Amino acid sequence: MPAAKPFSHRRNAPSYDSPGARLRIGLRRLYHGDSRKALRFQAAVLIVDLAIIALFIAQPVLKNTEAFLAVDYSVAAILFIDICARTLASRRPLRRLRQPVVLLDLFILVTLLWPETLINFGFLRIVRLWSLSKTGRLWQPLRRKGLAEWELPLRAVLNLVTFLFLATGFIYTTFFRSAGLEGYLDALYFTVASVTTTGYGDITLDGPWGKLTSIVVMIIGISLFVQLAQAIFKPTKVHHDCPQCGLQRHDPDAVHCKACGHILNIPNDES
């Protein structure tokens, strides 16, 4: 009786020799790897992300120049390539495309492709700064250099800056004519004055919607200022992963984890 052929578990396994598979593996290593090449690539991607934010901030100055459309479309092309590359690098591309951060990037891409038609929604590009903060890409260099204690206050600063420019963009595009704003700087001035509750009264938003906008700006602004103060003046924590529950922030002299009670061995200068 002939011997049965051994069953191959790789019969239905995907082939990693195809060009598409090799491309996806290469992109995954660049976006999520720790090699020197990957770190340089991730730094370049971070610069592109910050360029998109800088383009929004400089848009009121650049929009009347001849170079605006060239810069705008160049950033749009780079963002499109980045979205496609991240999707290919993902293990579940379709699931990634449904994530809120990716949907936001797609909307930002649309505003870049049609800057004149969708200029009123251009202020949403600043939300990319908040999404970068949430994904952790901004904080990886700090963690590698042992400066993780700066992450919390810098997160609070970025949240405040994001809200300031987001509110400024909304006020500038919505109340530009009714409030008599002469330019983007006036909208930023009004936003900062409202957030700090200074209320000079030289610029006001008329009507019910203007008053509601001012109230929302003041409430959220005060909350973000309190968050920033807490991040700066709260007792310093050290970053050390608890091997039992994974809690990362502990008191410098902690012996046990506050979450699970596991014994910690936090290194210090004397040990």
Automatic annotation (TrEMBL):
Domain called Potassium channel: residue spans: 162-233
InterPro entries xref list: K_chnl_dom (IPR013099), K_chnl_Slo-like (IPR047871), K_chnl_volt-dep_EAG/ELK/ERG (IPR003938)
Record localization: Membrane
Transferase is among the record's keywords: no
Keyword 4Fe-4S belongs to the record: no
Major location category of this protein: membrane
Membrane topology label: Multi-pass membrane protein
Membrane-crossing residue ranges in chain numbering: 38-58, 70-89, 101-124, 156-176, 183-200, 212-233
Signal peptide: none
UniProt-listed SUPFAM superfamilies: Voltage-gated potassium channels (SSF81324)
Domain of life (superkingdom): Bacteria
One Pfam entry name: Ion_trans_2
Alphabetical UniProt keywords: Ion channel, Ion transport, Membrane, Potassium, Potassium channel, Potassium transport, Transmembrane, Transmembrane helix, Transport
UniProt protein name: Ion transporter
Origin species: Jiella mangrovi
Source lineage: Bacteria, Pseudomonadati, Pseudomonadota, Alphaproteobacteria, Hyphomicrobiales
